[in-house]
Amino acid sequence: MVYFRPSRLSGSGLLLLCLILGADQSHALELNLTDSSNATCLYAKWQMNFTVTYETTNKTYKTVNISDLSNVTYEGSTCGDDQNGPRIAVQFGSGFSWIVNFTKHAPDYLIDTISFSYNIHNHTTFPDAEHKGIITIDNRVALNVPLNDIFRCNSLLTIENNNVTQHIWNVLVQAFVQNGTVSTKEYLCDEDKHATTVAPIIHTTVPSPTPTPTPKENPYVGNYSVRDGNSTCLLATMGLQLNITQDKVSSVININPNSTGVTGSCHPQTAQLRLNSSNIKYLDFVFAVKNENRFYLKEVNVSLNLANGSVFSIANNNLSYWDAPLGSSYMCHKEQTVSVSRTFQINTFELRVQPFNVMEGKYSTAQDCSADDDNFLVPIAVGAALAGVLILVLLAYFIGLKRHHAGYEQF
């Protein structure tokens, strides 16, 4: 979500300062609106990307990811006046727009609506689209923020509506800035508040769960599945180790499958596996179909609580891992690394996944990863060594035989 609100400053003479900062698989957007006296009246900084699923002319569905927010404009952004509330309006790409409206309810302001519009007539972004024209998705947001506070939300916020998923994170906003000075008093979103809350200790007599291995050990291998109605539609077997770097401090988290929850969803072109635990709000693996005959891991989203009480959130919807034909599974016994960003990587152990075309709840024939191909070098090398020994033996035999005949000729 994004967060903003009304101001009694006149909308005339506003100076719009818009900075676009680079970030992993997305752009950090920073917006500073000033009035005619050059005093800040609205400040916002955030990151976002989008996923849109649409119907094609042959009645199938395709999913596109919109994460390139370069060449952004902010026409229509305003701090508001006595009649109209403030608004953040963002335009990017070919026909995309994103608008947040605010209304004032002293002593708070309300994040009223968030709207996302896209032009499905754009054949480059939406090839073979069945429908044409501009589609607008309106989302009602009921969030109150104190007028004098700056709103902060580091956690990943997800809005899903009508085949559109919005991912928004690392939000910092004050829509009604007092006396031109951005507040240092923060109002945290619920997701960040929960992340810093210590859960109460409840004494029970149930057996203790299997202990989570220390980061120096390989993680336990877990079996995960997602159901669609009465049948299993996604299978995954893997040990998971999360590697995080925040503020130059590195940490490693091994996931214990015995204390991990599993949810997800399956669609014709996409499938999602979501894991969660006491310290992991969610860890999403999103798979997609490409070229109508292969699948791959396209997206990873994570939000978790670190030991120091902070929240770590990352989203990347432009990955390309675990590629295999539809109707088969992907398998890799060796350790693999999924690089989600410069600050977050996932190491997998004894991996096997099948996100589509699962039959009778069982894995189909597996395509091995390239890392496992090294195993074939062993018999080849052994065979080459044996062949070399055999050649040497035969050579020695023929040399001896020749000398033997040469001896006979001398007598």
From TrEMBL:
Keyword Glycoprotein: yes
Covalent S-S links between cysteines: 153-189, 332-369
Gene Ontology biological process terms from the UniProt entry: autophagosome maturation; cellular response to starvation; lysosomal lumen acidification; lysosomal lumen pH elevation; lysosomal protein catabolic process; muscle cell cellular homeostasis; positive regulation of ferroptosis; protein stabilization
Locations listed in the record: Cell membrane; Cytoplasmic vesicle, Autophagosome membrane; Endosome membrane; Lysosome membrane
Principal location: membrane
Domain Lysosome-associated membrane glycoprotein 2-like transmembrane: 378-408
Top-level division of the source organism's lineage: Eukaryota
UniProt KW keywords: Autophagy, Cell membrane, Cytoplasmic vesicle, Disulfide bond, Endosome, Glycoprotein, Lysosome, Membrane, Signal, Transmembrane, Transmembrane helix
Residues that span the membrane, as ranges: 376-399
Gene Ontology CC terms: autolysosome; autophagosome membrane; extracellular exosome; late endosome membrane; lysosomal membrane; phagocytic vesicle membrane; plasma membrane; platelet dense granule membrane
Signal peptide positions on this chain: 1-28
Domain Lysosome-associated membrane glycoprotein 2-like luminal: 219-358
Topological type in the membrane: Single-pass type I membrane protein
GO molecular function, one term: protein domain specific binding
Family: Belongs to the LAMP family.
Assembly information from the UniProt record: Monomer. Forms large homooligomers. Interacts (via its cytoplasmic region) with HSPA8; HSPA8 mediates recruitment of proteins with a KFERQ motif to the surface of the lysosome for chaperone-mediated autophagy. Interacts with HSP90 in the lysosome lumen; this enhances LAMP2 stability. Interacts with MLLT11. Interacts with ABCB9. Interacts with FURIN. Interacts with CT55; this interaction may be important for LAMP2 protein stability. Interacts with TMEM175; inhibiting the proton channel activity of TMEM175.
The protein's name in its UniProt record: Lysosome-associated membrane glycoprotein 2
Species this chain originates from: Marmota marmota marmota
Gene name as annotated: LAMP2
